[in-house]
Hints:
Elements: H1 13-17, E1 22-25, H2 29-39, E2 45-48, H3 52-61, E3 78-81, H4 84-90, E4 93-96, H5 103-107, E5 118-121, E6 126-127, E7 132-133, H6 134-142, E8 149-153, H7 158-162, E9 167-173, H8 176-186, E10 191-196, H9 199-221, H10 226-247, H11 257-268, H12 273-282, H13 287-294, H14 299-314, H15 319-329, H16 334-342
Parallel strand pairs: 1-2, 1-4, 2-3, 4-5, 5-8, 9-10
Antiparallel strand pairs: 6-7, 8-9
Amino acid sequence: MAYPRIVQTLPTLANVYENANIAILGGGSWATAIAKIVLENAPRITWYMRRPETIEDFKRLEHNPSYLTSVHFDTSRITFSTDINEVVRTNDILVFVTPSPYLKNHLRKLKERLTNKVVITAIKGIVPDENLICTEYFRTVYNVPDENLAVIGGPSHAEEVALNRLTYLTIGCTDEAKAKGFAQLIEGNYVKTKTSTDVIGIEYASVLKNVYAIAAGICNGLKYGDNFQSVLMANAAQEMNRFLRAVYPIERNIYDSVYLGDLLVTAYSNFSRNRVFGTMIGRGYSVKSAQIEMEMIAEGFFGTKCMTDINRHYHVNMPILDAVYNILYERISPAVEIRLLTDSVR
């Protein structure tokens, strides 16, 4: 498969991020994967985690005690901290990798200004209650200018990064030099990168693909076959495209990996917690029992309500989003709702 590459046109890292200090904020599986990727090119990082006991265990074991335990780190190259203000004060590039439902809580203690920092979000979710994608949240609440806001998107399971399996990431930023500089930083033997200026489109697509992965999981739990799953995903891509064109009408290729690729990997892979969550719902679990048993956040649950609320303003035809909302929040039978959905997709 041909994948558009821009490596030859990237500036050297020194042109953009010379002597920049980089921090990872978050302690989960994707944060661990991002730290692994960054440390393969950067000499050292700061790593913010909330719990001091997690940091102590990490230093002793030389791996994250809770996530991707097979990935070992040279901890002498990591400055760990539980003080978010210290982390923000002493670093230039802040990579946020916390689950979106917890972002506000992580930032509650923040007193330092973010306006002069490069804020990169690898959070594939939306801020609940605010109904804001993460860059919009940083822009409106913390006054971070557009040119200092970036996103990491694309089909990327943390578990495959841990195994050094080929991964394609897209860095979105309105400042192309900053996007290319960070792309250069994470480019490697198994990580290929490209850049985009479609920050809003990438973020909304990453929220919607979680919703569609829940739909795919529900259908899997109900024992719908591959034939219907393929039709469901084809319609999901069209639905995503309709919404992106309504909310941010620029020229984009919905078949690019950062849109369609991320949708497919999230909907089909057993690594996808949103698909797993949906499968449990399709098999008869309640929302609460599925959440308790998973012990991990399925961000599509929160994204479903947020996107439904947002679409009340845009009025885009989104039958798959509506079906997932009805199942999760209106407690309509998955079997009944998906049966109705089968009559509206083609």
